[in-house]
Amino acid sequence: MATQHTHQEHLSFVVFITAAAAIGGFLFGYDSSVINGAVVGIQRHFQVGPVETGVVVAVALLGSAVGAWVGGGLADRWGRTRSMQVAALLFAVSSIGQMLPFAIWDLALWRVVAGFAIGMASVLGPAYIAEVAPPAYRGRLGSFQQLAIVLGIAVSQLVNYVIARLAGGEVNNQLWLLQAWQWMLGACAIPALLYLTFALVIPESPRYLIMAGKPRRAREVLAEVEGEDVDLDARIAEIQHVVRTQRVPGLRDLRGPALGLLPIVWTGIVLSAFQQLVGINVIFYYSSVLWQSVGINQSDSLLISFSSSIINIIGTFIAISLVDRIGRRPLLLIGSAGMALSLATAAWAFSAPRVSRGGAVTLPDPQGPIALVAANLFVLFFALSWGVVVWVLLGEMFPNRIRAAALGVAAAAQWLANWAITVSFPALAAWNLPLTYGAYALFAALSFVFVLRRIRETKGRKLEDMG
């Protein structure tokens, strides 16, 4: 009984520190989706068109790509937790800047700073969680990153809806001296400060501590996360051997014969890109605009966006329950097939809009309900597969010697793909919405082939055995 109680205490501690690290994912989801409710307000306030809107929404993703690119190196120089603290401070400051912009370019600049912080957090969370989680629970604990992302999305949608209702249903209405959309962006500072608080109290990764020449502290952390019944001397020796024989990773360590990079690095890059090329963030960045474009009013469109976020959370819990049972590859294959079918259905549904004499656009029956169901099925299949599994794989698929650097490059590729989809959607949707969704369906089908050919199962393997 005492042994079981001790095991539960260790597991509870691991759950706490991994959940704290995953708050960076919450910021990622919150910042990604909060712009959804503010888009119309920004367009009207600054009187900009779809191209400028796409740039302002997507420019944060370029900052995220840079933050992810350098995040791995910073994590190896400063440590995982210190880097989290820096990311949290940057995000808090940028949230206030986004709340009080004096011009459209000023808003874009603060979104770049916020994106840089989120890019850092997107690397730090999976790396830290993978390094503190026991192998038997690593898949489920690694899923915390995506769970935090979808919770951030849902909370931001709910906050947006509440703020819009308080302002009378219009995001350009005044609310306590500012317009409603400004309060939406400023509210991001609250989770940023929460992230900073937890980053100040969680322990440093044992692998980083050994890299930094602190084996005694590393042993203490390992005892806290894996338990006294584990052979701590053997675990320390195992990690020390890896650290002694392999220097601190840099981008030069990723070089290989496959177009200048190691094949495993290319696998991570393509895996990351596919997660975004299926168009998932179009739903969370632009869904309120999308539903308004087919006849749904502003307030109701925000409520529909929130319902999609709830479906996202349900799918994420499904993935968490299955990722360590059936493995990573089966979940990815199920998700790719489901996304391809639902996106193709949505493309068909969006091909039948009706325009009234007054210029209002609606979708007729049965295309209207089918479009709504297909979009939410797409979110569900993404959440129970690619949303969770990609972050788990990126935290564990690379060899120890290149993990931080390779994760940074792969995450940067994800942000760049996200940027490409986000910046292009307003113009593409205005040109041909059905064809745009058809392209996302094609990428989902190609992701199925990629998983079959390139992804190896990592379930139950030690990080030291990777590569």
Describe this structure as you would to a colleague.
The chain has 2 domains: 1-202, MFS general substrate transporter like domains (Growth Hormone, Chain: A); 258-466, Growth Hormone, Chain: A (Up-down Bundle). Helix content is 76%, strand content 2%. The chain is built from 19 helices and 4 strands. The strands form 2 sheets. It has a two-stranded antiparallel sheet with strand order 1-2. A two-stranded antiparallel ribbon has the order 3-4. Strand 1 and strand 2 (178-179) form a beta hairpin. Helix 7 packs antiparallel against helix 8 (180-186) and helix 11 (215-226) crosses helix 12. The longest helix is centred in the last third of the chain and has 52 residues, at 403-454. The radius of gyration is 22 Å and the shape is globular. The relative contact order is 0.15.
Tell me the CATH superfamily of the largest domain.
MFS general substrate transporter like domains
CATH architecture descriptor name of the largest domain: Up-down Bundle
Across the major sheet, the strand order is 1-2
Identify the CATH class of the largest domain. Answer: Mainly Alpha
Distance between the first and last residues' Cα? 38 Å
Strand percent estimate: under 5%
Count the helices. How many? 19
* Chain-averaged pLDDT: 84
Q: Helical amount among residues, as a percent range?
A: over 70%
